[in-house]
């Protein structure tokens, strides 16, 4: 297409700002007067589009006629191959020419920052929590006891960013260091060693006051219930409630003075009877 049909100057200084696998295309707006908002559109071309689709340029869906001077292509840049990108401006009916990158971009050149982590202890357990990091990356965590040279390495992913190490030796200092890595082999700088003292198993400090408070509340509640019942109890209801009930007949047992009867039988002697002659 002839150059004289591009009535609007093209954007300038197109480059990719890539940090931790987030790829942002940036550019400068054209130096031209426009009575309305200047809009921008972005396209990309990867190895697949270049070789398989015969050099086709693909529109970035979220970056068509946008008023911003940046575009996030983290989703579009899905492999470690080279990508070319271009942007053009539009002012009303006027459209500029496309401005390409100075050289193709490869995500292996992304800048990896030192990961952020939180290290703390809970009894004899060491907990390491990593802040948010790219899905396509992993974090290598190195743990060692300060008075020993032996080190143990662990790998954390974005789906599992927390590390628990249990049964550590009480009274010893343990150190932790972390490094962000891509599966392509690109690594960030390591964090400074973060050392903590393992105090050993102990009862959490909140349990004792909480238990005392709960017990006190329960006791006060019971005392209040009893006090309220005594005050609000009607005389008739309380009399019936406290009235002694007689036992059923099946539970009534009659006590027979067996001891006295046995006592009488023990000392009973037969008395001789005098028979009259008439009875003989």
UniProtKB/TrEMBL annotation:
Keywords, in A-Z order: Membrane, Transmembrane, Transmembrane helix
Database matches in InterPro entries: FN3_dom, FN3_sf, Ig-like_fold, Interferon/interleukin_rcp_dom, Type-II_Cytokine-TF_Rcpt
Keyword match Membrane: yes
Residue ranges annotated for the Interferon/interleukin receptor domain, each copy included: 122-197
Source superkingdom: Eukaryota
Keyword Transmembrane annotated: yes
Transmembrane feature ranges: 212-231
Name assigned to this protein: Cytokine receptor family member B16
Species for this entry: Oryzias latipes
């Amino acid at each position: 297409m002839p150059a004289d049909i591009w009535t609007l100057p093209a954007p300038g200084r197109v480059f990719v700002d890539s940090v931790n696998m987030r790829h942002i295309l940036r550019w400068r707006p054209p130096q031209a007067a426009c009575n309305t908002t200047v809009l921008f559109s972005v396209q990309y071309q990867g190895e697949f589009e270049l070789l398989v689709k015969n050099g086709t340029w693909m529109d970035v869906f979220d970056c068509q006629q946008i008023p911003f001077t940046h575009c996030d292509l983290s989703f579009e840049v899905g492999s470690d191959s080279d990508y070319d990108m271009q942007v053009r401006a539009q002012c009303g009916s006027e459209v500029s020419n496309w401005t390409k990158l100075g050289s193709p971009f490869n995500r292996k050149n992304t800048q990896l920052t030192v990961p952020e982590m939180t290290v703390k202890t809970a009894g004899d357990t060491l907990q390491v929590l990593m802040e948010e990091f790219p899905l396509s990356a992993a974090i290598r965590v190195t743990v060692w006891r300060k008075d020993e040279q032996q080190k143990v390495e662990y790998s954390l992913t974005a789906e599992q960013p927390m590390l628990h190490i249990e049964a550590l030796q009480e009274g010893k200092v343990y150190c932790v260091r972390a490094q962000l890595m891509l599966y392509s082999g690109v690594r960030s700088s390591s964090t400074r060693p973060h050392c903590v003292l393992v105090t050993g198993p102990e009862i959490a400090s909140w349990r004792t006051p909480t238990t005392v408070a709960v017990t006190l509340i329960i006791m006060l509640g019971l005392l209040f219930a009893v006090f309220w019942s005594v005050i609000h109890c009607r005389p008739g209801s309380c009399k019936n409630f406290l009235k002694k009930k007689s036992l059923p007949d099946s539970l009534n047992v009659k006590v027979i003075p067996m001891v006295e009867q046995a006592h009488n039988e023990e000392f009973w002697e037969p008395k001789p009877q005098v028979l009259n002659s008439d009875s003989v």
